[in-house]
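call fold(seq) -> tokens
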Amino acid sequence: MSDDGEDVVPLPRGSAVIAHSAQSDVGRVRSVNEDSFLAEAPVYLVADGMGGHARGDAASRAVVETFRRHLEGGRPSTPEQVLDAIHSSNDAVRALTGEGEEGTAVAGTTLTGVALVDAGDGAGFHWMVFNIGDSRVYEWDGRTLEQLSVDHSAVQELVDAGLLRAEEAERHPERNVITRAIGADDVVDPDIWLIPATGRQVFLICSDGLSKEVDDERLAHILAGDTGHAAGLAGELVDAALEHGGRDNVTVIVVESELGVVGGDDEEATRDRPAAHPDEDTTPRGVGGGNGDVPS
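ret:
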């Protein structure tokens, strides 16, 4: 399943032109695709139904349907509205849990993505990055790939505690164990980042079917290239995961936003953003061996 498009989101002063390339594939091993995605301006998300749990595909779809109901398409939301959609998604997935022949069947899914929001109080428009689980959001500035989200996983906790080196994480027997998920508990605890929306910005959103198959350096090379793939950058990234084994469902969204300001400096408005974000509310951390850079 693929989806490519471009939308113009009107703002009080100017507009945001947002193009996206999205694709999801069942992979080479699994028989059911438990991933779902939403790519409708200005909200972009990936939900990866928890493998081994009942109704993982229904759980990821429930998240997409809940966001569609809670957020109005074609215009920025507020951070509070996005948080409400996240908490309502948790309720929707919890409602899928039921008793079966083998006991309680728990539905669950990861959730990660970005949404253009009005931060209010004169703070202006921001990209709100949100995450629960081990799907990921990266930012690409044309030179460096930076992971913005932080994995909620058993191996990441070991890395943070200094008990495991980052390069060992992908081989650890608990590498697929996540510590937070939509539907796992009555109350969900998402990580949130607010990044000022300015100029040209590119985000990569993906399930772990990409990040566990393709390293950051390879991801950066693909994003830096001129793809001729029929499904755009997302299609090329999915193919890279499949070529490396495709052991899981793989879902990718590449989002490119260009913010124009009426009466502003056009050159400044379209300049690539630096990798650092001094105005962020929190500081995202890179995971899994550092950032991906394109060698000079």
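Residues 155 and 171 are 10 Å apart (CA to CA).
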